[in-house]
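Fill in residues.
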């Protein structure tokens, strides 16, 4: 199994309040890059997880556990939300689905 796809774990940090303008600053996104094995999620798993075939679902496998907090995952220009996370003895797997209308 090749761990050759860069996967970016994104943490969204809310903007702080600016008392001078009375507005909130822009949210910032902090990314952590990890090499992963990315593959399409199997049809059986999709049916068990979602009850039907869901487009844009992937299975991501890391060689080690990822314990830092994160909000979402980016692969290329596409943003994904985590539907299932599973820690094995040394590996960590995620089943993710594409987030529609979300920008990098």
């Amino acid at each position: 199994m090749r761990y050759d796809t860069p996967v970016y774990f994104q943490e969204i940090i809310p903007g702080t309040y600016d008392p001078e303008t009375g507005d909130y600053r822009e949210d910032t996104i902090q990314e952590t890059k990890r090499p992963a094995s990315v593959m399409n999620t199997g049809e059986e798993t999709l049916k068990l997880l979602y009850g039907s075939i869901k487009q844009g679902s992937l299975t991501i496998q890391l060689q080690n556990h990822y314990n830092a907090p994160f909000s979402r995952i980016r692969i290329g220009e596409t943003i994904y939300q985590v539907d299932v996370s599973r820690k094995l003895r040394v590996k960590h797997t995620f089943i993710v689905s594409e987030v529609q209308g979300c920008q990098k």
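The chain has one domain: 5-15+23-98.
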